[in-house]
Amino acid sequence: MSDTGHTDRPGPLGSFTPMPGLGHDGDVHVLDLGPAENRIDPDWIARVSAALDEVEAAPAPRALVTTGSGKFFSLGLDLEWMAANPDGAGELVASLHAVCARMLELPLPTVAALPGHTFAGGALFALAHDYRVMREDRGWFCLPEIDGAIAITPGLIDLVRTRLAPQTAHEALTAGRRYSAAEAARERIVDAVAPLDEVVPKAAEIARGLSGKDPATYGAMKARLYRDALASLRDADANAADVRMFRAAMAAMGIAG
User: Fold this and answer.
1) Cα–Cα distances in angstroms (integers) from residue 34 to residues 1, 62, 78, 151, in the given order
2) How many CA atoms lie within 13 A of 110 on its CB side?
3) Which terminal residue of the chain has fewer beta carbons within 10 Å of its beta carbon, N or C?
4) What is the three-state SS of the chain?
5) Has this prediction a pTM greater than 0.85?
6) Is the CB of residue 257 less than 8 Å from the CB of residue 87?
7) Roughly how many angstroms between the first and final C-alpha of the chain, as a whole number?
8) What is the pLDDT along the chain (257 residues), one digit of tens a residue?
9) Are strands 178-179 and 141-142 parallel, antiparallel or unpaired?
């Protein structure tokens, strides 16, 4: 992901294409995570946090769409970085909790536009948005931690529980099922599906339809609606993690940790 310099790209929704970083089309700010796998490392956290600072400081009306400009939304935590920086692994996991909590209660409408694979921490980050739009013909939504022998933290479990129906949350977490767009829509993991070139415009349409809501009220509603999940995500002791819990997944990927 490039720097989060604000780029104006006005135009009709059908012609809007996000550039790497943070841009906007009228009321809708668009955060592009980048064209690669968009794995979560400290730089990713810093850039996303800076973008959220900028969006939250913008005058109302405002809304946010988060997307990726390549074949991926995000494949989750960067295990290679964690293997090379074991002393920072716990802090990185804590930072993921913090950015998910912040997104969950951000006082403006948020929509994740999923152009392709959305896995693990990337899927959790997508669930922290108010709504999700997924590419209809390609890509999976998946929480594969069970197959990497990773018992994810109580805070992230509670995020999943508060955003998905109980049986869907159970299946996603204990089976590691890969959901196609049609399956994700049926299970209400995503709110809409669209062809690739319409994923961001559809997400922007949803976001723009809500951008006029009073920010203070919108934020208060979300904070109260997700009060328990937010408290769980912010419980540092319960969510403490280190690189050892990721060793099985690293070994499966041929990464020494």
Assistant:
1) 4, 22, 15, 28
2) 25
3) C
4) CCCCCEEECCCCHHHCCCCCEEEEECCEEEEECCCCCCCECHHHHHHHHHHHHHHHHCCCCCEEEEECCCCEEECCECHHHHHHCHHHHHHHHHHHHHHHHHHHHCCCCEEEEECCEEEHHHHHHHHCCCEEEEECCCCCEECCHHHHCCCCCHHHHHHHHHHCCHHHHHHHHHCCCEECHHHHHHCCCCCEEECHHHHHHHHHHHHHHHCCCCHHHHHHHHHHHCHHHHHHHCCCCCCCCCHHHHHHHHHHCCCCC
5) yes
6) no
7) 25
8) 334 444 433 333 433 444 458 998 899 999 999 999 999 999 999 999 999 999 999 999 999 999 999 999 999 999 999 989 988 989 999 999 999 999 999 999 999 999 999 999 999 999 999 999 999 999 999 999 999 888 899 999 999 999 999 999 999 999 999 999 999 999 999 999 999 999 999 999 999 999 999 999 999 999 999 999 999 999 999 998 766 777 777 777 777 65
9) antiparallel
Which tokens hold the place of 24? 């906007």
- Write down the residue that tokens 């208060």 correspond to: 220
Place of tokens 């951008």: 211
Considering only CA atoms, which of 185, 184, 199, 189 is closest in space to residue 67? Answer: 199
* Rounded distance between C-alpha atoms, residue 251 and residue 109, angstroms: 39
